[in-house]
Design a protein that fits this description.
Helices cover 35% and strands 31% of the residues. Helix 1 packs across helix 3, helix 3 packs parallel to helix 4 and helix 5 packs across helix 6. An 8-stranded mixed beta sheet has the order 1-2-3-4-5-6-8-7. The radius of gyration is 15 Å and the shape is globular. It is an alpha+beta fold and 169 residues long. The chain is built from 6 helices and 8 strands, in the order E-E-H-H-H-H-E-E-E-H-E-H-E-E. The protein has a single domain, classed as Gcn5-related N-acetyltransferase (GNAT) (Aminopeptidase), CATH 3.40.630. A hairpin with a 3-residue loop joins strand 1 and strand 2.
Length: 169
């Protein structure tokens, strides 16, 4: 199901048929370094990740991570969307793109659309983002979107230190 259109992109709900793409994205060295190893090594693992993560989130919360595709040619380039994590009080915006599509403004374009959607359609007043302190490209996107650094947090899953950014009240 299509959720959003921007000038250059379409964002739609992920399906189990996106498992090949997710397998590739989740095993990119940059994803593993900055976001974490999700233990996805096969197409079946990716399908399970999709069913238990984004697809379950759509059913539970009415939102989740969305597939980002180039408009006009359904070429998947990344994911962007909203995540409700047990460890955070607020809904978190997240994004990840294949390296071939970095530095083209796609993360900003898709995340700006997701922020508008979160406010206008879902009715969220505050959105947060968590990011590794050394992930400068993502920090740059977050600050360009208007999120501001609030504090460091210790992530309960692995004890890592993350920066928490937020927008809204």
């Amino acid at each position: 199901m299509k959720i959003l259109d921007t000038e250059r992109l379409t964002l739609r709900e992920l399906t189990a048929e996106d498992a090949d793409f997710m397998l590739k994205l989740l095993n990119e060295p940059s994803f593993l370094r900055f976001i974490g190893d999700r233990g996805v090594r096969t197409v079946d693992d990716a399908r399970r990740y999709l069913l238990e993560g984004p697809i379950s989130s759509y059913q539970r919360f009415g939102f989740g991570l969305y597939l980002v595709e180039l408009k006009g040619a359904p070429v998947p380039i990344g994911i962007c969307g909203l995540i409700k994590r047990d460890a955070l009080d607020d809904v978190d915006i997240g994004f990840a793109f294949l390296p071939a599509f970095w530095s083209k403004g796609y993360a900003f374009e898709s995340a700006a659309a997701v922020l508008r959607y979160a406010s206008d359609v879902i009715g969220l007043n505050r959105i947060v983002a968590i990011v590794s302190p050394d992930n400068e490209p993502s920090i740059s996107v977050l600050t360009k979107l208007g999120l501001q650094f609030e504090r460091f947090i210790t992530w309960p899953e692995d004890g890592s230190q993350l920066k928490l950014y937020a927008i809204g009240d």
